[in-house]
Amino acid sequence: MIRAIVFDVDGTMAETEELHRRAFNAAFAEFGLGWFWDPPTYARLLQTTGGRERISAYASSLSAKVDAPPIHRRKTEIYNQTIRDGGIELRPGIAALVDRARALGLDLAIGTTTSRANVVSLLDVTLGAGSASLFASIRTGEDVSAKKPDPEVYHLVLADLGLRGAECLCIEDSRNGLLAALAAGMRTVVTPSLYTANDDFTGASLIVTNLSELRSWSASRPETSTCLQPDNLTNFLAGLPA
Ligand code: XBP
Ligand code: MG
User: Which atom from ligand 1 is nearest to the alpha carbon of 111?
Assistant: First the structure.
C-alpha cells in the first residue's frame, strides 16, 4: 500500500540546475576566483552531489585552495533571489500529483541534497506562499552527514513519516538520487532531467519523460504495471488528472 509520495527537488520538481549553475558562476565572479562552469563542465561536476562539496572537489582538481562554505553561502543567496524573482515553474505533472496525493490522503514529503531555503523558495513561488506546510517531512542536505547516493536523507524522511520504504513512492531524476531512494527501500519513478538524461536508471520501477505521462502510461500498458504491484499505485496513477 502506498501511503506517501516522496519527491526529490532539483531536476525532479523543477529544472533548477541551470539556475544553480548560474548562481555558482555569479558567486565565483564575486569572489574573484576566475572560475566559470559551462554546461558540459557542470554536467560532469554534478557527479559530486551538494554544492559545497562540488566547489571543494573542483578546487582539488585544480590543486587550488578555497574556503568553500562562504562561497556556497553566497551562491545560495543568489540562487534564492533568482527563484524568488520568478521564471521557474514546476515540471509537468508535479502539481497534479501533489493535488491527487492530497485528495487521496497520502502524505507528501521531500528528500533533497539542496538547502531548505532553496526548497521553501521554490515551493512558495510555484505551489503558493507557505506551501512547504503541505509536506509532512522536508529533509535536506543540511540534515545529513552523507549526501545522495547515500540514503541518509531518505531514511530521515521515512523516520519523520513513520513509514517503511515499501510504503512510499519516490520521484527522482538522477542516478545518484535513484540509488539513494532504492537503498531506502522505495520504489522509484524516474523523470530524467536536462542534466541527467544519460544517467543509468537501472532499478527504477518506471522511467517517464515527465510525470504528466504517468496517467496515460498506466492506462495504456496495464500489463507492465506489475512492476509496481501489489498496492494501490496503479489505481492511483490511473486516477491522475489528464
Ligand atoms: C542535486 C544536487 C544539488 C544542486 C545544488 O541534488 O546535487 O547539489 O546541484 O545544490 P538532488 P546546493 O540529487 O537532491 O536533486 O548547491 O544547494 O547544494
Ligand atoms: Mg535531483
Answer: 14
Its pTM stands at: 0.91
Among 54, 120, 190, 191, the mutation site with the greatest number of ligand 1 atoms within 8 A of its Cβ is 54
10 flagged as catalytic: yes
At position 169, the amino acid (one-letter code) is L
At residue 125's C-alpha, the angle toward residues 216 and 150, to 5°, is: 70
Tell me if residue 8 is catalytic.
Answer: yes
What separation in Å is there between the alpha carbon of 10 and the centre of ligand 2? 4
Residues 6+ apart with CB under 8 A from 162: none
Indicate if 46 and 64 belong to the same structural domain: yes
CA distance 99 to 197: 27
**For ligand 1, atom 8: residue with the closest CA:** 50
Partners of 188 in the β-ladder: 170
Q: Which of 213, 212, 234 is nearest to 222 (CA)?
A: 234
| pLDDT tens by residue, 34-53 | 999 999 999 999 999 999 99
> Taking Cα atoms as reference points, which of 241, 148, 145, 139 lies closest to residue 188?
148
Q: Which domain holds residue 70?
A: 17-84
pLDDT at residue 240, rounded to an integer: 56
Residues 122 and 224 reside in one and the same domain: yes
